[in-house]
Amino acid sequence: MPLSEQEQRLLEEMERSLYHNDADFVAGGSGRHGRPTYSMIVIGVLVGIVGIATLIAGVGIRVPLVGVIGFVLMFAGVLLILSPPRRGQAPRSTTTPDAGTKPSGKGGSFLQNLNERWDSRPDDKEE
Predict the structure, then answer these.
(1) pLDDT tens sequence across 59-72
(2) Nearest-angstrom CA–CA distance, 103 and 60
(3) I want to staple 51 with a disulfide (CB 3.0 to 4.6 A). Which of 19, 72, 74, 76 is the partner?
(4) What is the pTM of this model?
(5) Which of 9, 7, 11, 24 is nearest to 101 (CA)?
(6) What is the dihedral of CA 40, 44, 47, 48, to 10 degrees?
(7) What pLDDT sits at residue 126?
(8) d(Cα 42, Cα 81) in Å, to the nearest integer?
(9) Closest CA to 76 of 46, 105, 97
(10) CA 27: distance to chain centroid?
């Protein structure tokens, strides 16, 4: 059953709002508040190099446990390089809603606004 024009417009509006909210989430809510520091990159690279050497040594002396430890060290080095800095992070303040941005007086979330729109839609049962 095809969608009516009103339903198509509502669906397109929902998609635009979802893309807008996802962009805000990715930009602000991902938890990264900056680039990794130089010291963390250096430490990560050094740990990775030690991990590679340990892995090669484990293969050379044929002790699988040493190779696994080397792999874990390499993985930890990569995590250190990619992890965001921990110090200096202030808790993010929530944005204050402007007077004209929220259609609802309650200032609800996206889903609450969507439910309000769904409840207030005209019920034309033309099929």
Answers:
(1) 999 999 999 999 99
(2) 68
(3) 74
(4) 0.44
(5) 24
(6) -170
(7) 55
(8) 8
(9) 46
(10) 8
